[in-house]
UniProtKB/TrEMBL annotation, chain A:
GO terms for molecular function: ABC-type transporter activity. The keyword Transmembrane helix applies. PANTHER family: ABC TRANSPORTER PERMEASE, ABC TRANSPORTER PERMEASE PROTEIN NOSY-RELATED. The chain crosses the membrane at residues 38-60, 80-101, 128-150, 162-183, 190-210, 316-336. It comes from Haloarcula pellucida. This is ABC-2 type transport system permease protein. One of its GO terms (cellular component) is plasma membrane. Keywords: Membrane, Transmembrane, Transmembrane helix. Pfam families: ABC2_membrane_2 (PF12679).
TrEMBL record, chain B:
Belongs to the ABC transporter superfamily. This is Copper ABC transporter ATP-binding protein. PROSITE patterns: ABC_TRANSPORTER_1 (PS00211), ABC_TRANSPORTER_2 (PS50893). It holds the Pfam family ABC_tran. SUPFAM superfamilies: P-loop containing nucleoside triphosphate hydrolases. The keyword Transport applies. Residues 4-229 form the ABC transporter domain. It comes from Haloarcula pellucida. One of its GO terms (molecular function) is ATP binding. It comes from the Archaea.
Length: 341, 307
């Protein structure tokens, strides 16, 4: 600490360098990548995408009815931003990171990097964190600009809600950057890394849910695992997908009921009457309630006597997401460490 | 202590044997020239020293550390100009050197190093715009950070003009005088001959020779090659026998009226006189200093004949 105080920024720089072995690599990475014109273009597109809906709402007076004014921001987040983030942000992360290691490998700059006293582990960690900063800085900036626009609009701005949304969004972005950069470390050519990344993105975004339900069906039909255990497995599988985890976190944050986390987890399922009862009562510790609707009985899930199991709570879901950074980096380190350059 | 030690190092890439049991020792303080045609396995050897590739069999140490287990400790103390590298396009020359200084926790002045290799003028330009030669100088400056105990230079003169190549040799001498060990590879003999204490020749993944530059030259062909053309071949066989028996002569080969004599550098007159005394008139003669090129060709050809 005293070093930092004495030397100001330079002292802090030295302190970080002496404390974290990956620091020098991540700093170089950030310096290098932040000068890419393509990156600034991405930042611009990003900011525009965030601001456009607000600007439109301002211009056309959309959603400024009496009720709309109050709920407008929730609607904006759940109807527009949530889908935009889950579809767009991973693509931005892929553009930013798919070549992070593979390009250095092809061009040969990795040889310069690894002829210095950096272990391959430092290189992976430094790369992941450096690129996280590269995405994080423009993302936070565009979120901040969006906040300014929101305050100026006639929608009621709810800072705590937007703050939490920003936090989840940043975590989601960092998780994807970690996955993308790690995949990059496992391939010798950027082309392969790019292809692998898009497959992973496509799988996470569009196929994972069907896969999780498919596992549930196999458990029940082929292996005779039914009831609560089946739905526990399905829910855990769903939550393991960062995409789904992010969505359910934001939904829980936006929820207005007594137990928003419970409703958000329950909302991850679209099942028939019997299964819904099981999920609500035996998996989520809730109290299923039947409502007669036009299309038959609809089961809703109210808070029960017990509380939501801690491993399905919001903090646990955040931990699931963050665990990806570690998993991705270790798998990448393992493959990268074995390889000849 | 030894700077570099390879013990039975073998490396296979799929079916291809890149190195076939290489044993090699480089002493501390030596300037070692690592020679061989392209594809002989020089870069593979260097990549093993840097832990870029792992040997299939055998082991290697650098400055007493195992190349795989203690690679980081090695890289704290060496400077490297690798083969097939590239610079970071968007970082300036100065930032490159600063990055190395920070990585090694050294306190060199980046400008002084850039000055030394002659790219100080371009210090604040992005390295992506540098010419091939400037990039080479920049990476050399990076290799010189923190006065490394060992410099590993893979084909350091590629991409340099003759002036730059000479400057490179001067730098190697300066570093050697400071006490550093220098290990550099080349397929051009002229680059190696003038600065190296010791030369090793790698051929098809095997070390075929290792000696001092003088030692190798003497061992292969003697100090001087004297080509004598005679007018009349009568009595030539007897004369050649007389020449061959001279203590200064290491070998004689005959091609009708042209006789090639390998002998000590100052034995020219003795050889010519012996021909005359044996009754053979010398019509013409020329002398050639045996270059490392001849030596290299000799080794390469010997390999081909055996194969």
């Amino acid at each position: 600490m005293s070093t930092a105080d004495e030397g100001g920024l330079a002292g802090l720089d030295r302190l970080l360098r002496n404390t974290f072995e990956w620091y020098t690599v991540s700093k170089k990475e950030f310096k290098d990548a932040i000068r890419s014109k393509g990156l600034w273009l991405l930042g611009l597109i990003f900011t525009t995408a965030f601001i456009a809906p607000v600007a439109l709402a301002l211009y056309f007076d959309i959603g400024v009815g009496q009720q709309g004014q109050g709920l407008g921001m929730q609607l904006l987040l759940s109807q527009v931003y949530l889908n935009m983030v889950t579809l767009l942000l991973p693509i931005v992360a892929i553009f930013l990171g798919f070549a992070a290691i593979s390009k250095e490998r092809t061009s040969g700059s990795l040889k310069l990097l690894l002829s210095l006293p950096h272990s391959r582990k430092d290189v992976i960690i430094g790369k992941v964190l450096g690129r996280c900063a590269v995405l994080g800085v423009p993302l936070v900036a565009s979120l901040a600009i969006t906040a300014v626009f929101l305050t100026a609009s006639r929608l009621t701005f709810k800072p705590e809600l937007f703050g939490l949304f920003s936090f989840f969004t940043v975590v989601f972005a960092l998780v994807f950057v970690a996955i993308v950069v790690s995949i990059s470390g496992a391939f010798k050519k950027s082309l392969w890394s790019g292809a692998a990344n898009f497959i992973v993105y496509f799988y996470f975004t569009f196929l994972w849910n069907a896969g999780a339900n498919g596992v549930g069906n196999i458990l029940s039909n082929e292996l005779g695992v039914t009831g609560a255990i089946r739905w526990h497995v399905v829910l855990l599988l769903k939550l393991v997908n960062p995409n789904q985890a992010y969505k359910t976190l934001v939904n829980s944050m936006l929820g207005s009921g007594e137990a928003p986390a419970l409703s958000a987890r329950y909302g991850m399922f679209r099942q028939g009457e019997e299964a819904s009862r099981t999920i609500c009562a035996d998996v989520l510790n809730g109290a299923p309630q039947a409502q007669e609707g036009v299309f038959g009985t609809i089961i809703t899930c109210a808070p029960g006597s017990g509380s939501l199991p801690f491993y399905y709570s919001d903090p646990a879901v955040v931990v699931f997401m963050l665990a990806w950074i570690g998993i991705a980096a270790s798998v990448s380190y393992y493959t990268f460490n074995l390889a000849d350059l | 202590m030894t700077a570099i030690e390879l013990d039975g190092v073998r490396k296979e890439f799929g079916d291809v044997v890149a190195l076939n049991g290489v044993d090699l020792t480089v002493e501390e303080g030596e300037v070692f020239g690592f020679l061989g045609p392209n594809g002989a396995g020089k870069s593979t050897t260097i990549n093993i020293l840097l832990d870029f590739v792992r040997p299939t069999a055998g082991s290697a140490t650098v400055l007493g550390h195992d190349v795989n287990e203690e690679s980081k400790a090695i890289r704290e103390r060496i400077g490297v100009l690798p083969e097939g590298y590239d610079v970071y396009e968007r970082l300036t020359g100065r930032e490159h050197v600063e990055f190395v200084i920070e990585s090694k926790n050294a306190d060199d002045d980046p400008m002084a190093l850039l000055e030394r290799v002659g790219v100080a003028d371009a210090a604040d330009r992005r390295a992506g715009g540098y010419s091939k030669g400037m990039k080479q100088r920049l990476v050399l400056a990076m290799a010189l950070v923190d006065e490394p105990d060992l410099l590993i230079l893979d084909e350091p003169t590629t991409g340099l003009d003759p002036n730059g190549a000479r400057k490179m040799r001067d730098l190697v001498r300066e570093e050697s005088e400071r006490g550093a060990t220098v290990f550099f590879s080349s397929h051009i003999l002229g680059q190696v001959e003038s600065v190296c204490d010791t030369v090793g020749i790698l051929q098809d993944g095997e070390l075929v020779a290792k000696d001092s530059v003088e030692g190798l030259r003497a061992a292969a062909q003697g100090d001087m090659k004297l080509v004598v053309t005679v007018g009349d071949t009568d009595g030539l066989d007897a004369a050649v026998e007389d020449v061959r028996s001279l203590p200064e002569v290491s070998g004689v080969t005959m091609d009708t009226d042209r006789i090639t004599v390998n002998c000590d550098g100052d034995a020219k007159m003795t050889v010519l006189n012996t021909f005359e005394e044996s009754g053979v008139a010398v019509e013409d003669f020329e002398t050639q200093e045996a270059s490392l090129e001849d030596l290299f060709t000799a080794y390469t050809e010997r390999q081909e004949v055996e194969a």
